[in-house]
Amino acid sequence: MTTVDNPLEPATPAIEAVMRGDESAFADLTRLYRRELHVHCYRMLASFEDAEDLVQEAFLRAWQKRETLRGRGSFRAWLYRIATNACLDFLAKHQRRVVELAATGASSDAVHVPHVAWLQPYPDRLLEQAAPADAGPDAAVARRETIELAFIVAMQYLPPKQRAVLILRDVLDWSAAEAAMLLESSVPAVNGALQRARETLQRHRPKRDAPAAAGGVAEEERRLIQAYVEATERCDADELVRLLSADARFTMPPAPMAFVGSRTVVRSWVEGGFGAPPFDDFKCLVTRANGMPAIANYVREPGQTHHQAFAVDVLRIEHGRITEVTAFDLASLLGAFALPATLA
Known about the structure:
Blueprint: H1 13-19, H2 23-45, H3 48-64, H4 75-93, E1 99-102, E2 112-115, H5 124-127, H6 149-155, H7 160-171, H8 176-183, H9 187-204, H10 217-234, H11 237-243, E3 244-252, E4 255-260, H12 262-271, E5 282-289, E6 292-299, E7 307-318, E8 321-329, H13 334-337, E9 342-343
Parallel strand pairs: 3-8
Antiparallel strand pairs: 1-2, 3-4, 5-6, 6-7, 7-8, 7-9
């Protein structure tokens, strides 16, 4: 189990310098934890941009409360306590609720798709920076199954305190005592919140098949992604239908819409203009988000010389088919993905 640093850890020279008001020492220390705290806030909030703001808020609070470092355990745990409380304060002020949308194309009215209007993707290039330098590929902070969009969406059903407990215990592998200390709660209260959170998550997290053995899966996925890119650039609706699973889902937060079924999904794209001016000249770049393949789409309108950033499709792939497409506005995420605004 991965635990926080020794709660009785003595103050290091760097921490002593921070408590004396050394801004340079504070910047050096916080830089070590910025990205993993950003991922932590992202899991709490499901929004990349809100997580950015809350990390900044956490560091501001940390600087203002730097004298409380003495006797409060490790610097990392102290930062997590401040960041978690900043997220809880934010959620108390912003009452956000997951909406269940009746999916267009579903064979039954009972098929509903969760709608998280504030959902944003998290670029893999930044996830790679989140794990501590000495951590292995399965580092708790960046495990794929705890960063995928389906997990992030399911987390939004939890009350904020339960969300924090589940992240600390089941994602970061903190002990009940460590989580209770961070949340200024008791071990029984933390254990009770964790049980309720697990039950809620179980109800709302999609059932997934066990992942296949590595082998040729990566190559199969690469070919499927390339086929998706080529079909998009050709505006080949029939090929896109073939690449999607029969029960594929499509959503595009923050728009309150959901489509189910490969033909229904692609038809919604065509009815939205795909394949006709000004949406008939695409270029795509392959990237990754939330541990999943993602396609950055650029479109060139008539009379323009460059393709402009349009949308990024985050793809869930199972058994050689695309089972879910979650699209986001690309222009607002270019910096996060380190992508150009235009393509020549």
